[in-house]
Amino acid sequence: MKLIIPMAGRGTRLRPHSITTPKPLLPVAGPTLIERIVYTFVTSLDKKITEIAFVLGHFGEEVEKQLIDTARRFGAKPVLYYQNEALGTAHAVNCAAPSLYGEVIIAFADTLFRMDGPVDLEGADSVIWLKKVDDPSRFGVAVLENNRITRFVEKPDVPVSNHAIIGVYYFREGERLQRELQHLMDHNIRGHKNEFDLTDAIDRLLQQKTVFRSANVSEWLDFGTIPAWLSSTESVLDRQYDEQDANEKTFPDTTIIPPCHIGNNVRISNSTIGPYASIGDNCTISGSEICNSIIRDHADIANATLKDSTVGQSSVVRSCSQKIHIGDFSVVGSTV
Question: For 23-38, what is the mean pLDDT?
């Protein structure tokens, strides 16, 4: 089983953090988004993930090394492909054409999700993961009959279904999908925003009597904007919080209000942390109050009150009492 993860998007709505770090490599209460996505499949499928193919923009060697290490930690072969121009979801997947054969999972690295128990992949040519939503006009949706998908509709004006497609797909024969993707490219068949849409390729397979079944997720978290990153991190903290683990870390003259994530080699003194604070590795915090915030690795914060804030890697914050969003290697307040 191969796992293909398109992640070439620039994540502009997550700036300033996505300027230096691709969105899928941003932390979610410790592990990166991409690590959590891979872990979900490794633990929910009864088939081993043998290869993980990442479809990238040109993020640089350090990012590529991090992705390669991630794949190897999960016992999978890493493969890197590149999408040099953003031409749509179908184009992004087709950039991984050499890996599109045999059993394939495609998962766009935009969201985090929880499966509704183990997924049965038998008896279907394809499985598409869905989530019931209140406003289907914002999403591509699938029309179901007895758990079998009979139709796809992109952002319907008339509510034909409330089962949103979350961007995760299984294909028993990846080469069949690849042929339809190539057909779109060869005939310049474009859809929404004049881009090549994966939904169009899947719709062509549906017309060929391909058996599409659905799988449901119990949770679907968005990471497309900074407010969404904060609120989704809160949801993860709620789910993973373990009071016993939290009590193992104590700091002088400091109160920890759960749920929180506190990374490794963190120094905190005379502070109040939480609730919903995610503190990265190697941070130093003194005389501060931090809640509902994400503090990334190596940040240095003193005499600050931060709420609904994000602080980049190796940034310095001094005597600040307001909501802030600063990128890596930034300075707020006097450091003298």
Answer: 89
Taking the CA atoms of the chain, what radius of gyration do you get in angstroms? 21
Cβ(320)–Cβ(330) below 8 Å: no
- Among 6, 28, 16, smallest CA distance to 229 is for 28
Residue partners of 60: CB distance under 8 A and separation at least 6: none
CATH class of 2-227: alpha beta
- Name the segment(s) of the chain with CATH classification 2.160.10.10: 242-332
Separation of CA 208 from chain center: 32
Per-residue pLDDT reduced to its tens digit, 73-127 = 999 999 999 988 888 889 999 999 999 999 999 998 877 888 766 666 777 788 8
Count helices and strands (H / E) in the chain: 8, 24
Burial label, 98 (beta-carbon count in 10 A; 0-12, 13-18, 19+): exposed
Virtual CA dihedral for 119, 121, 126, 127, nearest 10 degrees? -10
Q: Rounded distance, CA 18 to CA 26, Å?
A: 8
Structure letter (DSSP) for residue 252: T
**Distance between first and last Cα of the chain:** 55
Q: What does the block give as tokens for 295?
A: 């503090």
Q: Residue 73: which residues within 8 A CB-CB, separation 6 or more?
A: none
Partnered with residue 214 across adjacent β-strands are: 128
Is the Cβ–Cβ distance between 100 and 157 less than 8 Å? no
Under 8 Å CB-to-CB from 287, ≥6 apart: which residues? 269, 270, 271, 302, 303, 304
This prediction has a pTM of 0.86
H or E element: which one contains 154?
strand 148-154
Third-level CATH fold of 242-332:
UDP N-Acetylglucosamine Acyltransferase; domain 1 (2.160.10)
